Amino acid sequence: MLTEIIWDVDSIITEIFGFQLRWYGLCFAGGFLLGYMVFTRIFRTEGKPEKDLDPLLLTMIISTVLGARIGHYVFYEGSHFLEDPVHFITEMLIPPYAGLASHGGGFGIVFALWLYSRKRPDQPFFWVLDRMSVAVALTGAFIRFGNLMNSEIVGKASDVPWAFVFKQNFEYSQVPRHPAQLYESLSCLLLFIIMYFIWNKYKQRLPDGLLSGLFFTWIFTLRFFYEFLKENQVEFEDGMALNMGQWLSIPMVLFGLFLLSRAYKRGLKPA
């Protein structure tokens, strides 16, 4: 029976001409690529114009990165804005990106897809958001696995048989801990499987908001409870009954439940 798992993975895969190839970047890019392939299949199956795939991919990349980056600074480092606004904005927008907030990424994606759908009557907002939620769930699984490869966003100390000792994270390497990143990664993967099955069975008959409602409810309900197993990301959270991630998850869950209720009342569309 396992007592602990020694996790001693270097976050850097290799270095080529001074450029560092990192596991996190590879997982991030790989997640987007596979998500793009899934969405391409959905797009083609439902007869949407393939010329829109490339601008949609670009929209997703920009909105995810900028939303997650801005969210990180607004939610977790907003107090630094008054100290040096110019440096704050410059560091927030210019790579490398040392901090990304999934809640900010979620806001960014929703807003960007709303703008995208306004110019395409054949792709209403909820049609795009529902189908994109399937791809995002898969991408999220890879991104959270990238966090594991980075030995970041670690869990609290634990004596569960599958606890990880994060040797590369010197601040938290003393004792075994919950592999919280792996919990979230596997949760996203399971959600992707469920959502893809639902889409594949019903396709155009799906009521608007069903898949996106399931996504927001599943991801952020679990995120709320997983936070109890994780170390706080920033110092100011130590004095809070609920940390920032939990407070931000509450409106996301309520939004998801609203979409699910709305979809349930409307029911499946006629075949």
UniProtKB/TrEMBL annotation:
What the entry lists under NCBIfam families is as follows: lgt (TIGR00544)
What the protein does comes down to:
Catalyzes the transfer of the diacylglyceryl group from phosphatidylglycerol to the sulfhydryl group of the N-terminal cysteine of a prolipoprotein, the first step in the formation of mature lipoproteins.
Enzyme class at the top of the EC tree: transferase
The UniProt GO MF terms for this protein read: phosphatidylglycerol-prolipoprotein diacylglyceryl transferase activity
EC annotation from Swiss-Prot or TrEMBL: 2.5.1.145
One cellular component term (GO) for this entry is:
plasma membrane
Q: Which UniProt keywords apply?
A: Cell membrane, Membrane, Transferase, Transmembrane, Transmembrane helix
**Protein name, as recorded:** Phosphatidylglycerol--prolipoprotein diacylglyceryl transferase
Cell cycle found in the keyword field:
no
Provide the topology term for how it sits in the membrane: Multi-pass membrane protein
